[in-house]
């Protein structure tokens, strides 16, 4: 069940990226968007890895 946490966190960070990308909340937050993408992808990979471990 741990993989669900990772996949949920991944979705939260990627949704945060989309909100910041398509709104003018922070002006030009290039570094912050990059940070959100890195965290989102990391949690996505961790979730997929945990899911694969639980299926075995």
Write a compact overview of the structure shown.
Keywords: Membrane, Transmembrane, Transmembrane helix. This protein has 56 residues and is mainly alpha-helical.
Question: How does this structure look, described?
Answer:
By secondary structure, the chain is mainly alpha-helical. It is built from 2 helices and no strands. α1 runs antiparallel to α2. The protein starts with a helix and ends with a helix.
Provide the helix percentage.
Answer: over 70%
Topology as a string of helices (H) and strands (E): HH
Radius of gyration, rounded? 13 Å
Specify the overall morphology.
Answer: elongated
Strand content: under 5%
Work out the number of β strands.
Answer: 0
Integer average pLDDT: 80
Helical stretch tally = 2
End-to-end separation in angstroms reads 14 Å
Indicate the low-confidence ranges by residue numbers: none
Largest sheet at a glance? Answer: none
Which structural class best describes the helix and strand composition?
mainly alpha
